[in-house]
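Handout, section B. The chain below has 408 residues.
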Amino acid sequence: MTAPATAAGTAPGRVRLPPLLRLLILTQLAFNIGFFAVLPFLAEHLGRAIGMAGWLVGLVLGLRTFSQQGLFVVGGALTDRYGVRPVVLTGCALRIAGFAWLGYAERTWAVIGAVLLIGFAAALFSPAVESEVARQAVAWEEAGGGARTRVLALFTVAGQAGAFVGPLLGALLLAVDFRTACLAGAGVFVLVLAGHVRLLPQHIPGRARVRMRGGTGALLRNRRFLALCCAYGACLLAYNQLYLALPAEVERATGSQAPLAWLFALSSLLVVTAQLPVTRWAGDRLAPRRAMAAGLLLIAAGFAGVAAARPAEWTGTAGLLPAAGFVVLLTLGQMFVTPVARAWVPDLAEEGRLGLYTGALSSVSGLVVLLGSAASGSLLDSGLPPAVPWLLLAAVPVTAIGLLPRRE
C-alpha cells in the first residue's frame, strides 16, 4: 500500500480527511473515554461489592457484550432506514441513562438491567458511526485518497486513545467509589450528545435510506460474510478476556487490581503509536486473509505465554510479566485483525445495506462472546491445573483461522 495522495501542502504520508470523517473519528475517541472509565473495573465491582460468583460475573459481562455486539444488527438496520443522526443521538441518551443506573444498582437484576441498557445504547450508535466511517473510507479510496484500511486504522487509533485515557480516568475516580466513575462516564456522553446535536448533519450526501425488510435473507445466504463474522467473533472473545481472565491473573499475581489500569493503558498506547505502521506494513505484504491469520496467531501466543508461566506461580513484579506479554500480543493481534475485518465488509455487503452488514459483523461476534464468556468464567473457577484454562483459550483464535473466507 502506497502513501495516500493528499492535498497540496500536506506532508507526505499524512492523511487529510473530509470534515465528516474527522467528526466520526473524534466521536469514537469520546465514546471510548466514557466507556473505559467504567468497564475495566466492572468485574471487580460485581465480585467484591455485589458478591457475585465467578460464573455470574462472566455471564453479566457476556450479556453486556451480547446486548451491544449482538444487537448491532438492529442498530445497523435502523441506520440504513432512518439515517445516522437519529440513531446516534438516541444511543447516546440511552448510554447516559445506563451508566447512571449502574452507579446506583446494588441487586443482581438491577445490575443486569443497567448493563443491558449500556450495551443496547452502543448497539445503536456504534454501527451507525462504524458503517458511515466504512462508507466514507471507500469513497475516499475511490477518490484517490489512499487505502481504506488507513482510514479504518485511524478510527481504531482514535478508539484506543479513548481506551487509554478512560481507564486512567476511572482509576482516579475509583479513589472515591465506583458510582463516581459511572456518573463521570455518563457525563462524557452528555457532552457527546450535545456536540452531535450541533455538528452531525441531518442528511449525509450519498446515503440513501432503504426499507428494513428484505436484507436479512441475502445476508444469511452469504457464506463468505458469515465466515468472516465467526472468525472475528473468536477474536472478540479473546479480547473480552481483558475484562475476565486478565483481572483474575493480576489479582493472583499482586493481590490488587491497581496494575490493571496500567495494563489497559499499555494496550491503548501500543495501538495509538503502532496501529498505522502495522496496518501499512500488513497492507504492503499480506492479503486480508493472511493478515487476519497472523493476528489470530499472535493472540493465541499471548494466551500460551501465560499458560507456560502459570505453573511457576510467580508473584509481584515477576508475576505481572506474563500478563503484560499477554496484553502486548493480544493488542498486536487486534491491530492486524480489526482494520482488515472492517475494510472487508463493504466488499461483501449488499448494495445499500452496509449498516446491516456492519451490524451483523458485531452481532454474530457478540453471540460468540455470550456463549464463550460464561464458559470462560466457569473455566477460570473450575479448579483445573492453572495452565489449562489459558491453553484452552489459546485454542480459540487458532481454530478461528480455519473459518476465514478462502477467497479474497
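Note. The longest helix spans residues 108-142. Compare this with the example in section A.
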